[in-house]
TrEMBL record:
Residue ranges with Polar residues bias: 542-552
Signal peptide limits: none
SF4 helicase domain residues: 262-524
Protein name: DNA primase
Organism: Rhizobium hidalgonense
InterPro entries recorded: DNA_helicase_DnaB-like_C, P-loop_NTPase, TOPRIM_DnaG/twinkle, TOPRIM_dom, Twinkle-like
Source organism, top-level taxon: Bacteria
Region (Disordered) residue spans: 145-166, 531-552
Length: 552
């Protein structure tokens, strides 16, 4: 017969309250051996054998008895037994009435290694699985007290949004509520519940309470329903593997405020044209869409913007330019912007300096010229390359110019609107994940101007979908109202957040010799003349553009 001794190492934090007279008799020891659990480990958890006794009031209680065939699992909390669970032959389970609802082996939750995230708290659906984990070396394991809540007919265990939430202070999850202070301190949980509908429901209920961000789930080998199954069929190493390979819980999207990391206010960046500052403040992680009538300078303005950002902030820009070949056309535009000088003043040194600047600040996402077959330049292809550019070259800006030259494959059952919604969402996700300013240059629909109507396009005029207005964080239209004036109007049609600017239009002076732009009310802070000096321009009043048509 096995007997807990006062000198043995305890599993839970404190075991002094377990009566040392309680012993695990042969029937109990055999029951654990049959489950490939070391009976000594069960003893250390406080398990003992007992027999059923019917009182004078007809109530059945269980009394310790080494020769009994009922296995008793005490619930110890704060070093004191607060409840008991009984298991009689034939898989009959019941509990002693009353007592504080808590996890089985709850005191292991005080292990400091859980607080610093060094260890995870493993939560099982029953004591046998809990002991299996402990026997395999995972001492920070608890079990829920009452197994999994049943799944009602027609209920999807993975879709519990419609379920009425329990009041945890006295409901089925009272044991979670009672341990809420300990739970708050624990960094990681591994849910090792049963792989069946009630188990999945239990997992979903726990994740809801513990926060998905802290939870991981296990995957059992084919044919195994729980941890003890894994131990029985594949051995202790397989149990260790299952727990070690737990994956982050996939239920995402519903968080408490406290689940979010503390973040500073987003930092915004000037475009480099001071007149635009009140309207357009850029941030890393955003999607900026630029449109305008063909030939009005969308690409030219965008490249000048990128040069400004590279100069002012030292950023590197990834450019996927499908209409203009990188060499010589795009390089020429970049040399103009980088030198800020008209070509007739170019010297070998000036061009060499410009090329050093371009080499340092620009990365080109292009088809592989040595490949035998052309890559399909789909959005997925492009974002894959852009992700590589983030890793290898730390790009902070991604330019896709123009959108219509990307290979757009969409499934038959997806409408153009749905596709554009999905695609822009993907770009925004990329921008946010990598903290990159994503710029998409898009043409307006060819219908614009049909019927003799000459007007500035809006974001809604972009081919395909209203998503072009809805999805971006900034929407900008580049417009040339009168080509004789050498002026370009930058219309900020959308600024999603008030801290990132506001709707409005600003006229920039267009400098045809360098295909560049300049604030009318002051130079761009880093705009340099051919001689490398800030050039003086007399301040002018920004032109007010009387708005015609609907404001978007
Ligand atoms: N305000 C302006 N006045 C005169 N010419 C301009 C002005 N703005 C840009 N340009 C010139 O017009 C030409 C076309 O510019 P760009 O290719 O950037 O336009 P785009 O809107 O991107 O055109 P597309 O939609 O056809 O790609 C360039 O040579 C550019 O320097």
């Amino acid at each position: 017969m096995l007997k807990a001794s006062s000198s043995t190492v305890t599993i839970a934090a404190s075991m002094e309250a377990i009566s040392l007279t309680n012993t695990l008799g042969p029937a109990g020891a055999l029951a654990f051996q049959n489950r490939q659990i070391d009976p000594q480990v069960a003893v250390l958890s406080g398990a003992y054998t007992g027999r059923a006794v019917t009182g004078t009031d007809g109530q059945i209680t269980v009394e310790p008895d080494p020769s009994g065939n009922i296995v008793v699992f005490p619930f110890i909390d704060g070093g004191r037994p607060v409840g008991e669970k009984y298991r009689a032959p034939g898989k009959k389970f019941w509990q002693r009435k009353g007592g504080r609802k808590t996890f089985w082996n709850a005191d292991c939750m005080d292990d400091p290694a859980l607080e610093d995230g060094h260890k995870a708290l493993i939560i099982t659906e029953g004591e046998i699985d809990g002991l299996t984990a402990i026997d395999c070396g995972f001492h920070t394991t608890v079990s829920v007290p009452d197994g999994a809540p049943p799944v009602r007919e027609g209920e999807d265990p993975d879709q519990l949004e419609d379920a009425v939430p329990d009041d945890d202070s006295h409901g089925k999850f009272e044991f979670v509520f009672n341990n809420r202070h300990r739970i708050k301190r624990i960094k990681r949980f591994i849910l090792a519940v049963d792989n069946d509908p009630p188990g999945r429901r239990l997992a979903a209920e726990l994740v809801r309470r513990l926060g998905a961000a802290r939870c991981a789930f296990v995957t059992y080998p084919e044919g195994c329903k729980d941890l003890n199954d894994v131990r029985m069929r594949h051995g202790a190493d397989a149990v260790v593997r299952v727990i070690a390979e737990a994956k982050p819980y996939p239920v995402r999207g519903v968080y408490l405020l406290s689940d979010y990391p503390e973040l500073d206010e987003p930092k915004t960046y000037s475009t480099g044209w001071p007149d635009l500052d009140p309207y357009l403040q850029l941030w890393l992680g955003e999607l900026l869409v630029v449109t305008g009538i063909p030939g009005h300078g969308k690409s030219t303005w965008t490249m000048n913007l990128c040069v400004n950002l590279a100069r002012a902030h030292g950023w590197r820009v990834g450019v996927a330019s499908f209409e203009i070949p990188t060499v010589p056309a795009l390089r020429f535009k970049l040399r103009l912007a980088a030198t800020g000088t008209e070509t007739k003043q170019w010297t070998r040194d000036l061009v060499a300096d410009a090329d050093v600047f371009i080499q340092k600040h620009f990365v080109f996402i292009d088809a592989d010229p040595t490949a035998e077959t052309d890559d399909d330049m789909t959005l997925e292809w492009l974002l894959d390359r852009a992700a590589d550019a983030v890793i290898r070259h730390a790009i902070k800006v991604l330019v896709i110019d123009p959108w219509n030259e990307v290979e757009h494959y969409r499934p038959r059952n997806e409408s153009e609107t749905q596709y554009i919604n999905r695609a822009l969402r993907q770009i925004r996700k990329f921008a946010l994940r990598h903290e990159v300013l994503a710029i998409v240059v898009a043409h307006p629909t060819k219908d614009l101007g049909k019927g003799g109507e000459a007007r500035t396009p809006t974001m809604y005029d972009i081919e395909g979908s209203a998503a072009w207005y809805n999805k971006p964080d900034h929407g900008v239209v580049i417009d040339v109202p009168d080509p004789e004036l050498n002026e370009t109007v930058v219309w900020v049609k959308k600024a999603r957040f008030s801290w990132s600017g506001r709707k409005g239009d600003v006229t920039l002076q267009y400098l045809p010799e360098i295909e560049g732009y300049q604030s009318l009310n002051g130079l761009a802070p880093l705009w340099k003349s051919a001689r490398g000096e800030q050039e003086y321009q007399p301040p002018r009043q920004p032109r007010s553009n009387a708005y015609q048509g609907k404001e978007y």
